[in-house]
Amino acid sequence: MVTYHVPVLYEESIDLLRVDPQGVYVDLTFGGGGHSRGILERLGSEGRLYGFDQDRDTRGNIPDDPRFTFVESNFRFMRGQLRALGVTQVDGVLADLGVSSHHFDTQERGFSFRFDAPLDMRMNQRASFSARTVVNEYDHERLTQVLGDWGELDTPYKVANCIERARAVKPLETIAQLIDAVRPCTPRKDENKFLSKLFQALRIEVNHEMEALKMALEQSLKVLRPGGRLVVISYHSLEDRLVKNFMRSGRFDGQVEKDFYGRVETPFQVLTRKAIVPSPEEMERNPRSRSAKLRAAEKGHGLDQTDKN
Question: What separation in angstroms does the CA of 279 have from each of 10, 33, 213, 285, 299?
Fold first, then answer.
């Protein structure tokens, strides 16, 4: 059997979820099913797990288990999908963000600059919007913003200029053509780091990842029972900052609100004072875990934001 994805921070994330054998849980990023299987191992006969994934390739990993329900959907629609299944409250939500090994290693999906392939990068293969659209149709200002905001490139306007000059000659259809287009502004010493940032920017834009993450975090607060836990593994600073701020304050800007007496008002109790990172052994075993950061929080018992509608 080919490994679809090696679950990162596996034991640490499942332990922090503190699985109640009779509880109801959500795996927002089913993927290869690694974390889901860990949750199922700790669930009793009455427990339930809902696994979300918008990529149809993941259907082949669905466990034959009556306690598991697969939801083919982007996790931004978590609350609505759960309500359609008759679920209004859950005991825990787990998300392993980023891109699976399967996506990076499947050449035709276009997620990796290691292979030549069509400019794609769609998590949802049914969507029409792809990296080709971004590269060829975005104007200079919008392209520069995407490269700067999502890729955190040092000089995004220069990269946008390179892309614009190349596409003026002919549309950029493949990864090789894109790499060739940005070669004049690619640093010789840090080529891989530069291309990683470029591909990250395009992938985030194509899949609306930051918007989806914000929606999923907000909805997690509404579906979690008081005492329920939110566990998130992120892979770059943009994701981690959102997760850290939201767990700290219930807001994405991290601004903590205080009541009349100066007491901090926050919907969560943060369980990870500092982000948990993989051990040297795990990083050696699975190099793709190197940038992973795990954070967890528990919804306060005095707060119930479950949607009553």
Answer: 12, 22, 26, 10, 28
pLDDT digit string, tens, across residues 42-89: 999 999 999 999 877 788 889 999 999 999 999 999 999 999 999 999
Instruction: Give me the residues of the chain with pLDDT under 50, please.
Output: 1-3, 100-105, 107, 305-309
Q: Write the pLDDT tens digit of every residue in 215-243.
A: 999 999 999 999 999 999 999 999 999 99
Q: Judge residue 20's burial from the number of C-beta atoms within 10 Å of its C-beta, 0-12 exposed, 13-18 middle, 19 or more buried.
A: middle
3-class state of residue 78 by DSSP: helix
CB 92, CB 70: distance < 8 Å: no
**Amino acid type, 4:** Y
**CA 288 – CA 40 distance, rounded (Å):** 25
**Sheet of 24-27, strand order:** 68-71, 48-52, 24-27, 90-96, 224-234, 293-299, 268-270
Could you tell me the pTM of the whole model? 0.85
Domains belonging to the chain, first-starting first, are 10-101+209-299 (3.40.50.150), 109-207 (1.10.150.170)
Q: Residue for token digits 């975005």?
A: 138
Going 148 to 154 to 157 to 162, the CA torsion angle's sign is negative
